[in-house]
Amino acid sequence: MFKKDITPGAKSKVKSSAQRGIRSKVLEQYPLLEPYIDDIMPKKEQLDLVKLPDRVSLYTLGATPLFFQHMDDPLMPHLTLIHRYPSCFNRLRIDRGAIRFVLSGATLMVPGLTSPGGRLPDDDDDEEGIYGEEELDAGEVVVIESEGKETACMVGVLKMGTEEMKKVKKGQACEAGHYLGDGLWQLSLG
C-alpha cells in the first residue's frame, strides 16, 4: 500500500466526539491495548488526522503516528505503536527466507509461515505461547514478526485463515498494509 514515498496531505484536528469514537473502535479491535489506552490516546491530548494518498487516513498524536485506515477498512496500528506494545496484537512469525520479500512490499505467502522457521497460532514449536492458541480468520489484522529478529516487520490483513494455511500450505497469506522501510514508515510528521 505504501511502496513509494508519500507526502502527507492536509492535517486537521479530530473533534473530541470523533476522538472518543476512534478510541472505542481501537479498544473493540484490540482489547489487549486497554491497560495502555490512556498512554496511547490520552483524553486531554489532541488527536490529529493526516490525509494520505489513496484515501488513507493517519491518526497521530503530535508527531507520533498511531493508527491508519484505508477508507472503511479496519484501523491498523502503525509499526511504531506495535514496537511499543508488541504483546497486544495477534502475531505470526515468518522464516528468514521471507524477510526480504516482505520488506520489499510483496504479499506474504503461506510457505513463509508454515516452514520450520515460521510460527502460526497453536503451533507445537511455540514454547512460550506468544503466537496464541486461537486460530485467526481471514480479514483479521495481524502483526508479522521475523525469525531471529526482535521487532515486528509488517502489519497486514490475513487473506486466509491460519487453520486453512496449515492444511493447504500454499497461496497468499497476508496482504501487506505497512512494513519497515515503506513510505508510511519514512513519513516525516515533524
Automatic annotation (TrEMBL):
GO terms for cellular component: cytoplasm. InterPro entries: MCT-1/Tma20 (IPR016437), Pre-PUA (IPR041366), PUA (IPR002478), PUA-like_sf (IPR015947), PUA_eIF2d-like (IPR048248), Uncharacterised_CHP00451 (IPR004521). One of its GO terms (biological process) is formation of translation preinitiation complex. It is found in: Cytoplasm. Residues 90-181 form the PUA domain. Its main location: cytoplasm. Transmembrane segments: none annotated. The keyword Glycosyltransferase does not apply. GO terms for molecular function: RNA binding. NCBIfam families: unchar_dom_2 (TIGR00451). This is Translation machinery-associated protein 20. Involved in translation. SUPFAM superfamilies: PUA domain-like. Pfam families: Pre-PUA, PUA_elF2D. CDD domains: MCT1_N, PUA_MCTS-1-like. Belongs to the TMA20 family. It comes from the Eukaryota. Keywords: Cytoplasm.
